[in-house]
User: What shape does this take?
Amino acid sequence: MPTLRLALAQVNPTVGDLTGNAALVLDYAQRAAAAGADLIAFPEMVITGYPVEDLALRPSFQQASRAATERLAVELTSEGLGEVPIVVGMLDHRQGAPAETGVPRGQPLNSAAVLHRGQIVATYAKHHLPNYGVFDEARYFVPGNSSCIFRVGGVDVALAICEDLWQDGGPVSRVRNHQAGLLLVLNGSPFEVAKHDVRLALCQRRAAEAGCTLAYVNMVGGQDELVFDGDSMVVSPGGHVLARAPQLIDHLLLVDLDLPQADAARDPIDLGGAERERPPLPDPITIPVSHEESVYRALTVGLRDYVDKNGFPSVVLGLSGGIDSALVAALALDALGPDRVIGVSMPSKYSSEHSRDDARELAERAGMDYRTVAIAPIFEAFMDSLGLSGLAEENIQARIRGVILMGISNQEGPLVLATGNKSELAVGYSTIYGDAVGGYAPIKDVLKTLVWQLCRWRNAVAVERGETPPIPENSISKPPSAELRPGQMDTDSLPDYALLDDMLDDYVEADRSFAELIATGFDPGVVTRVLGLTDRAEYKRRQYPPGTKISVRAFGRDRRQPITNRWRERA
Assistant: This one.
């Protein structure tokens, strides 16, 4: 039985950076080869980054991706890696394909390329194109229809790409018919809460169906709203985890696999390879992290990569002393460091002293750039000119703060972070051009109850490390308030957040009807009110900045409702 040393390169590409992504592949390939790898695999679309969206429809980009992959094959050989088969994801296309109505321009292919001895020696095009949730691949690609099997070190290796694994039948069933020894799956699978458990169960089921060991390599890193969390793994036909990479960290996973000898009667492309002495490997199995840690890591990675990949030098946010801005500040500090975070306190005559103290204390604990800009004089000027009252008076305070933050951004270059959470966005508890301003919203997909959990978790981690907790306890324990009028509390306008989040989980995530919500036990009056607020707030959500997706149904990427819409859930 041959032993194959497999390397799964869990890397963080950048969309459109063909040169940088090829250099990333070369770097990890050199490290894997130095560790004795017989076969090296990279994630789905690693050459172009993923998802490329409408870039896939540009002939120039299609051609550039193919050319970059061909150059990479030559460079790998010139660097002494030509004898090691390397599998990379790329954007390909059917050259010379005629234009057809209803078919993506250029007939783009979400492909895997096998590189060996300076050439692309085999390709595989993704069969199943997901068209749900965040995926619109039927818009961008045409499906493949053929298998790809090659031989390495006496082992037959079959390829599949991401959704091919999630759909019943198709490439996996063909692998069993061919009696391959290894099914290698390239993935661009975004993070969602608890998805690592779902992935493992899926890989175990598909390994059993294919009748062979399954290797799953996933990318890591942030791309706009999406975060890819790695969690690459290798599973035996019997469901045993043979190797597993950490979540949300760049990682080279190496594992020695005892695999069945290929059938000599079959004749796939043979890329050689022979058993040889190799350096020993560390334990290839990483224990998954806790729920809170995985979410916090995802939010941190999403923010870091959005800032860095888009070239922002720093970030700026309003520090109110409340829990939402405290969590966003903690995420920014962990993602970027205190020298790249600016916190601005903008107190009004309604701002409590303890909120001002909490904001100052957070900034002092972190050592970040902290500024105070009192809005009272500006507010009075608006009131003298406009004579506002009620909700308009409250909202003008938020809008003054938005103008201040955007002014700092324009003058000094930092990206403004919006600090609203998913519960607030759901029911429209935000002010357009006020607290909704910004270029990125790190916690827009985080329900309020989870905000509290993450803050407590982050402080507990600091205590375990012997560090000062970053978030003042008072920011966590005090009742939430926008502080836009005397004695204001969020509960003046909204149900208790535990109840609200429970209802939003049913209505937003699960699409439950009015009748189903009532049957669950919610009060009919509260259901009527919350659903009305949620439905009417779509226009606000459309104008909110992008932010990291962590749930099954994030606003914008997943849940897309018409703004002009008279449908209402009723009893």
Q: What stands out?
A: The chain has 18 helices and 19 strands. The chain has two domains: 3-271, 292-488. The two ends are 65 Å apart (CA to CA).
